[in-house]
Amino acid sequence: ASVDQIDFLHPVRLGEVVVLRSSVNRVFHTSMEVGVKVYGENPRSGEVRHTNSAYMTFVGLNAEGRPTPSVQVIPETEDELRRFEHALKRRNHRLQSRKGTL
Description:
Blueprint: E1 2-8, E2 17-27, E3 31-41, E4 48-59, H1 78-99
């Protein structure tokens, strides 16, 4: 559905292994925010660098291709709670910018 923000921190160099780690930060009614971190790993030295991050929004669809409610996530750790709360702030910002009220 959307990509809110992509932060490029370092390049991934030729020959490095690309590793993606993601988490569902928050589920709304039919959409969810997923945070993605990308790492570049040098297979020779074992060095791993955080190369970029992104926030993406996906919409759950039913068999007919229509938006459908998704299963909620319940934050259990302080980090999950922080991501959960920040996801709501990003969503509100997204909705306000679409309405032109920013």
